[in-house]
Amino acid sequence: MIPNLSARNIKAAVRQIDREGCDKRRASTKFCLVVGDRHYPPKYVISLAVEQARGRLLTPQEFSGGNETNAVLTDR
Q: Is-contact 2 72, C-beta < 8 A?
């Protein structure tokens, strides 16, 4: 389950990916978060945003992609 996140947490996660890149194992398989002209893997964005908010990276096994992840990003 994805904990409550702010738009600021998500923006920080996107900036982190811009700085550090994305591990190929965390690449998107179906959906992308589009910010400006850049594409980001939604599930990895959520993982990093949780780390920003809670101090611990959320592993891919701890939550689902697709509807759960996309709903959080759409709401923010």
A: yes
**Sequence ranges of the domains in the chain:** 7-75
Instruction: Report the C-alpha gap between 42 and 20 in whole angstroms.
Output: 16
pLDDT in tens, 27-69: 998 999 999 999 999 999 999 999 999 999 888 899 988 889 9
**3-state secondary structure string across the chain:** CCCCCCHHHHHHHHHHHHHHCCCHHHCCCCCCEEECCEEECHHHHHHHHHHHHHCCCCCHHHCCCCHHHHHHHHHC
What's the CA gap between 20 and 40, in Å, rounded? 13
pLDDT of residue 46: 96
